[in-house]
Design a protein that fits this description.
- The structure is a single chain.
- The chain is α+β, with helices and mostly antiparallel strands and 422 residues long.
- The protein folds into two domains: 104 residues, no CATH class; 310 residues, ADP-ribosylglycohydrolase fold.
- The chain has a four-stranded antiparallel β-sheet.
- Helix 5 runs parallel beside helix 18 and helix 9 crosses helix 10.
- 43% of the residues are buried.
Length: 422
């Protein structure tokens, strides 16, 4: 007896064929919906000598189970007992409808996820802008508890900084096609023409980012523009990397790493910045799939460590990430979490804030009140917290106070349309 599976696309349909020699042929036709897929039709062609008992539907149940559990990662074993199936026709019809229900329940709303990330970044950024460079001690005495204005950069309430602007530039490019030159040129437009600034003014730009964009403006290849020296490991690539998640979703890990490296290297080319961006996007990818945040943390300790070793990356470089890859960082005290502009500090702080809080609001406020690089720590934390809790759990008041909120929503919609076709 031989069990063969065939899976192929045709137009908007995805076909599953299971040929079980001597027993039957089973088919499911799955149609692409606006978000996700649903089972459109379902067939079973049986060897009636093998299945003379019409009440024996284990073969059809198994086929449906394999699609549901294998493709959708939904455990349906306990649901089998509630199906009141009397004959083969009922079985096929019942499982077809059940499959449709499964797919609709498991469909991921791209629009909500994209808005969660873009607004999550921007709100966290805007909360931190007025208190950037303030010490942790100062913010303990007078913590940020709400959206405020002016302060460090003398900007009105709801103003986001370079963190969000470059995030939006990347999202803008991805809403067209993935092209490094387009990304690079949007960065140039931001620096020179105030593209995607909050209020028509560029402020708070890092030295490495300014220098790299200047090189692109002079004709340098984008993925070679970022400084690759060890001293250039600020958080300027990490702060803007989150929209790349949506382009990488269905790509294998080797492609995810290489593309992340290219996009990071537009401004920061050292392997440490690349690893930080890669870790962040892998965490975000599993949040996107709605996995538990602590399970994600543990899973990444194995998968990322193993992958980096296979890439022949220096063990000393990998060891720099030991607090994430070998320890339980969430058990560390606040005093051992740092919030400077160093990429490792920002990454660790964002993961710590995510794992030690239970809401978007608490995560970003904890991040901002660390002090120092408050806008970037808030933005990087906000991107993950937005994914984890969803757009509806970002305080409506803060979204309403955000500069260019309608433009951000429009960008999310355009990126959503493009992502559905990637």
């Amino acid at each position: 007896m031989e069990d063969k599976w065939f899976i192929f696309y045709e137009n908007d349909y995805l076909f599953f064929h299971r040929s079980w020699t001597g027993f039957g042929l089973y088919k499911a036709q799955i149609i692409k919906e606006q978000v996700g897929y649903s089972i459109h039709e379902f067939w079973a062609e049986r060897n009636q000598e093998k299945y003379s008992n019409k009440d024996d539907n284990t073969d059809i149940e198994t086929f449906s189970f394999l699609i549901a559990q294998g493709l959708l990662e939904i455990d349906v074993r306990e649901i089998f007992v509630v199906n009141n199936i009397k004959n083969e026709t009922d079985c096929v019809k019942g499982w077809s409808n059940f499959g449709n229900l499964l797919f609709k329940n498991k469909c991921i709303d791209y629009s909500d996820k994209i808005k969660s990330v873009l607004f999550g970044v921007a709100v966290g950024d805007a909360l931190g802008v007025p208190v950037e460079f303030k010490s942790r001690q100062t913010l303990k005495r007078n913590p940020v508890t709400d959206m405020i204005g002016y302060g460090t950069h003398n900007m009105p309430k709801g103003t986001f900084s370079d963190d969000s602007s470059l995030t939006f530039c990347l999202a803008e490019a991805l809403a067209k096609e993935f092209d490094l030159n387009t990304i690079g040129q949007y960065f140039v437009m931001w620096l020179n023409n105030n593209f995607w600034t909050a209020r028509g003014t560029v402020f708070d730009i890092g030295i490495a980012t300014r220098q790299a964009i200047g090189r692109i403006a002079k004709g340098e290849q984008p993925d070679l523009a970022g400084d690759a020296k060890e001293t250039s490991n600020g958080n300027g690539a990490l702060m803007r990397i989150s929209p790349l998640l949506f382009y990488l979703l269905n790509k294998p890990i080797n492609e995810r790493f290489e593309i992340t490296k290219q996009v990071s290297s537009i401004t920061h080319g050292h392997i440490r910045s690349v690893i930080a961006c890669f870790y962040y996007l892998e965490f975000a990818r599993q949040l996107y799939e709605e996995n538990d945040k602590f399970e994600i943390y543990k899973n990444l300790q194995t998968t990322i460590s193993s992958y980096l070793i296979l890439q022949s990356i220096s063990p000393k470089e990998i060891a720099i990430f030991d607090r994430l890859l070998k320890e339980d960082i969430y058990n560390l005290t606040e005093a051992k979490i740092y919030s400077s502009g160093y990429v490792l500090h920002t990454l660790e702080a964002s993961i710590w804030c995510l794992l030690t809080t239970d809401s978007y609001k608490d995560a970003v406020l904890k991040a901002v009140n660390f002090g120092e690089d408050t806008d970037t720590t808030g933005a990087v934390t906000g991107g993950l917290a937005g994914l984890l809790y969803g757009f509806c759990h970002i305080p409506t008041k803060w979204i309403g106070q955000l500069a260019r909120k309608n433009d951000i929503e429009n960008l999310a919609e355009r990126l959503c349309e493009k992502i559905a076709n990637y």
